[in-house]
Amino acid sequence: MVRTRSSSLRQQDLDSIALEPVTISECSEPQQSLRPIPYSKSGKMYHSRTGIEILPTEIDLDSEDDEEIHIFETNRKRLNRIDTNSGKFMKIWNHFMLENRNKFVAEKHMLSACKEFVEINSKKIREQNLENALLTHLIFFISIGYFEFENIAEILQQFEILNASKENAESNLFD
After folding, report:
1. I need a surface site. Which of 24, 70, 78, 86 has the fewest CB within 10 A?
2. Dist CA 153 CA 118 (whole Å)
3. Domain Polycomb protein VEFS-Box, which positions (predicted)?
């Protein structure tokens, strides 16, 4: 049998480990910390997205979702001051995207996001007279390359069909 250097090192490592039996009382004692605090070689940790050093007081609060919620709240407050149709439309759009942030995560999902948005919010868009804001939003998506002009026609046709069917259903209720 030929022993390589790596296998002999592993054997040496195994031989140097002292195994002591664990008592029942040691297992039943509560641990000081449920989660060990990891440290890098330099002793500093950094946020994965921003690259900013994590302070010792922030170690348990390293949830980047909190930052996203703060950004959303700041933008929501900013949009609340806007009383135009585009501001109203963007409130509805941002609320929809926030609720579905795990469903629509890439550019290729924007077409299905727009279709679902129109399906859910067509009545609200019509009632608040936001059709032009919807069209502007869809044209913006063409300008940045999310989808083609034919897709806008398809979405607007879906919007008209949904509103016509909702109006017919409402008129049948009153007849």
Report:
1. 24
2. 13
3. 44-146
